Amino acid sequence: MADSFDVIVIGGGPAGYPAAIRAGQNKLSVACIDEWRNRDGNYAFGGTCLNAGCIPSKALLESSELYHRAREEFAVHGIKLTEVAIDVAQMQKRKAAIVKTSTQGINALFKAAGVTGLHGHGKLLSGRRVAYTGADGSQRELTGRHVVLASGSAPAELKSVAFSAPHIIDSWGALDLEAVPKRLGVIGAGVIGLELGSVWRRLGSEVTVLEALADLLPMADQQLAKEAGRHFKKQGLDIRLGAKVRGAKLASDAVEVSYEDAKGGHTLTVDRLIVAAGRRPYTGDLLGAGTGVELDERGFIKVDEHCRTGAEGVWAVGDCVRGPMLAHKGKEEGVMVADLIAGRYGEVNYKVIPAVIYTAPEIAWVGQTEEQVKASGRPYKIGVFPFPANGRARAMEQAQGFAKIVAAKDDDEILGVHIIGPMAGELIAEAVLAMEYAASSEDLQRTIHAHPTLSEAVHEAALAADKRAIDSINR
Ligand code: FAD
Ligand code: NAD
Fold first, then answer.
1. Is residue 151 within 6 Å of ligand 1 at its C-beta?
2. Distance between CA atoms of 124 and 103, rounded to whole angstroms?
3. Ligand nearest to the CA of 359
4. Average pLDDT, stretch 78-86?
């Protein structure tokens, strides 16, 4: 193996591995170092996303939703089942197989792109040298013309609630539960709390979510957040807002959580407690002395809009830098950096990053919320189309939620799109593309959407912005 490369990427998650592949596609010599080890002790590329995040959570969301629908909904279709039971071990086996296929796929992609994949630890030293400790403990010094830091993030631990497996667990632990807990507590009604709370609720847990803030999903359009809150309540997710957790202690085989809200102090007793109170950038033993790379006050690696750190030839991408902690954001940053290194064009449009919450109904948005547009002072109009008026959604027995478009009154530019309903995470892609091309709501209005599809809801929402919806009453 060579000791010097055009590009060395430290971290093989969804920010680092695409950077390595694109660098390879750009005919640069590239190595990608990653230290992730799964519970079986095996190394695997893919980082949090493939091993303990996006992919395994979506596998469990799918299984648990099918179970829920088989129990609650199939009868409406005339499908009679005599017994519906959940086999958690099989569900977990399926999840593990999906993770394995996904992470092993990266080895094949690396091979095809000429990337040298290295398992083990990487540490940036001065002068773009990298100290590499291999899986077998061997040590080497590598040099890169460029180094890309993609070290990712880790679950934030609360001072008042220390992790204590198997009772007090982080999201990885929550993905690996071997049985359905009778009483499940979740700290944090953020994306992880809602997704993983939904998984275990559908499988039968009594789920209580303690959220410190007074509002559910404050970052989302509030019409969307309110609709989501109604659905979660109907599903039996007990979300307690304004609940500030003060501590948690183990009591035989249970956890006693103490929290305060406007009414005073309370204790909640649960069998398992998931702490999903955010994630922090991870830079453990990443930076040696004199690298010139700086961290901000919250521990993120400081970068400019093109992901350059303050050190010549050193870049940083993904969860370890500012911006939303999302796999697709990290991926685009990684690709941008690899293209810029090769002297090509590279840019990330931070204003048009979609967000998706994979609950049922799904929640997705891009651009500004109605509240943000209102606060900006720009005159705007909104179009809302309810899924109960969409034929495909009714045929799917999923006629709930709405699509909403916020557009400028002056030039009709689409400023934000907010969807809660079936396959919202897929539907949002049309809005992302429209906004990437600075489309107007009229552009969407004049685009033919196949019938009957869920995407007609987006079309009709655009029409509704000008009170010209056909399939719902314009208000
Ligand atoms: P990571 O994925 O954390 O990868 C960093 C890698 O670098 C790791 O493999 C780590 O071991 C390695 N590393 C760190 N330091 C070193 C070092 N010094 N030497 C060698 N290797 C090192 N995002 C979405 O967009 N959609 C989702 O549906 C979604 N679901 C999620 C569900 C859960 C439960 C969780 C926890 C997260 C989810 N996320 C989701 C967030 C997503 O996983 C992260 O945004 C994404 O993984 C960040 O990518 P990254 O490459 O920056 O970091
Ligand atoms: P989050 O920031 O989305 O939510 C954390 C929640 O915990 C917040 O609402 C916060 O107010 C609350 N909280 C914090 N401390 C608390 C306390 N002491 N008591 C009660 N509540 C408290 O973080 P997360 O859900 O842990 O997710 C971490 C990251 O992973 C997010 O940035 C998210 O973007 C990413 N992620 C994305 C997806 C997706 O894209 N579908 C899925 C999972 C995770």
1. yes
2. 25
3. 2
4. 95
For range 130-138, the mean pLDDT: 95
Task: Give distance in angstroms: CA of 234 to centre of ligand 1.
Answer: 32
16 Cβ inside 6 Å of ligand 1:
yes
Count Cα neighbours of 427 within 13 Å in the Cβ-side half-sphere.
Answer: 31
Contact of 383 with 407, CB cutoff 8 Å: yes
| Ligand 2 in reach of 321 Cβ (< 6 A) | no
| Ligand lying nearest the CA atom of residue 53 | 1
Domains and CATH numbers, the chain: 4-154+280-348 (3.50.50.60), 168-277 (3.50.50.60), 354-464 (3.30.390.30)
Q: Is 193 in the pocket of ligand 2 (CB under 6 A)?
A: yes
Please choose from 198, 279, 319 the residue to mutate so as to test ligand 2's pocket, defined by most ligand atoms within 8 A of CB: 279
Confidence category of residue 475, pLDDT binned at 50, 70, 90 = confident
Q: Three-class SS of residue 309?
A: coil
pLDDT in tens, 152-185: 999 999 999 999 999 999 999 999 999 999 999 9
Question: Sorting pLDDT into bands at 50, 70 and 90, what band is 1?
Answer: confident
| Rounded distance between C-alpha atoms, residue 369 and residue 410, angstroms | 18
